[in-house]
Write a structure and sequence with these properties.
Blueprint: E1 10-14, H1 25-35, E2 39-44, H2 47-59, E3 63-68, H3 74-88, E4 93-96, H4 112-139, E5 143-148, H5 161-181, E6 186-193, H6 199-202, H7 208-216, H8 226-237, E7 248-251
Parallel strand pairs: 1-2, 1-4, 2-3, 4-5, 5-6, 6-7
The chain binds nicotinamide-adenine-dinucleotide (NAD).
């Protein structure tokens, strides 16, 4: 039975910050990876938010460093990986967590210019980070990449065409990357979170009725948090998933399995 195998490993988490004290998916993943003994590079375009994550990790005696970078920018991704390797000598795990709600609307309403810019953040960024992290993983004969999608990448129903399309791209990018890099020992998996209550959602001041409807629309009828997603990341980063690649792990209290029938799925819209 394999150990977690994360002690001393170097993990990169993009979007590892969160507004204020909130626990986003990236922050939760970073804290939980550090708890397993990984050294965690906290990439964020707003370094102050990643500094707050670093303080939380330090409080538990973990190791981390903040790296200021815009993952939609190629030079920024290259520089970020270079500085992490300069400091810690290797890269074992990459968590491509950055993602935004992006421009609203269907094909008729959505702003095409905003669409292009947002695609760079939700999709291109994951390719760019992998472009620079994979050569480092090759040096020690393996690694693990975890791409964060959404249940909206697996089904229709979200009024935002951009969000569904970008998250769907992450799903199949994961399978293709898994096929390309499996033979070199690099596992690539995806998590499709359900509608968890994180700062990405709460910052918009969600009505209590909508929050409750989201909860009731899951089979378990329990509200999800960033920790639920972070625990999935740790599993997929660890040796315990050594025989797992190319999967899309829905962490969603059963949302992809069916609806409880209490509320319309469209009311569970999260942005
Ligand atoms: N919250 C949900 O209900 C939910 C559901 C499904 C999927 N997701 C996905 O989970 C992921 C992250 O969620 P979260 O709760 O951690 O989000 P969050 O908004 O709390 O944190 C995202 C972090 O990413 C950073 N960031 C944004 N653009 C960046 C860029 N270009 N370069 C570097 N950093 C950047 C932000 O500064 C922020 O600190 C996203 O991919 C999101 O789509 C969330």
């Amino acid at each position: 039975m394999p150990e977690m195998g994360l002690k001393g490993k170097v993990a990169i988490v993009t979007g590892a910050g969160s507004r204020g004290d909130g626990i986003g998916n990236g922050r939760a993943a970073a804290i939980l990876l550090a708890r397993e003994g990984a050294k965690v590079a906290l990439i964020d375009a707003t370094p102050a938010w990643a500094e707050a994550t670093k303080a939380m990790i330090e409080k538990e005696g973990g190791a981390s460093m903040v790296v200021s970078a815009d993952v939609a920018d190629q030079a920024s991704c290259a520089a970020a990986v270079k500085s992490i390797v300069g400091a810690w000598g290797r890269v074992d795990v990459l968590v491509n967590n950055v993602g935004i709600g992006g421009p609203m609307g269907n094909a008729v309403d959505v702003d095409p210019t905003a669409w292009d810019a947002a695609m760079r953040i939700n999709v291109t960024s994951m390719m760019l980070m992998a472009k620079y992290a994979i050569p480092e993983m090759r040096k020690q004969g393996g690694g693990a990449i975890i791409n964060i999608s959404s249940i909206d990448g697996l089904r229709g129903g979200n009024p935002s065409l951009f969000y569904s399309a970008s998250k769907g791209a992450v799903v199949n990018m994961t399978r293709s990357m898994a096929a390309h890099h499996g033979p070199e020992g690099i596992r690539v998996n995806c998590i499709a979170p359900g509608y968890v209550y994180t700062p990405m959602v709460s910052v918009h001041g969600m009505e209590p009725e909508l929050r409750d409807a989201r909860r009731k629309n899951t089979l378990l009828q329990v509200e999800g948090t960033g920790w639920d997603i972070g625990n999935g990341v740790v599993y997929l980063a660890s040796e315990q998933s050594r025989w797992v690649t190319g999967i899309i792990l829905s962490i969603d209290a059963g949302s992809m399995a069916g609806t409880s029938g209490n509320v319309s799925p469209l009311k569970a819209f999260d942005h």
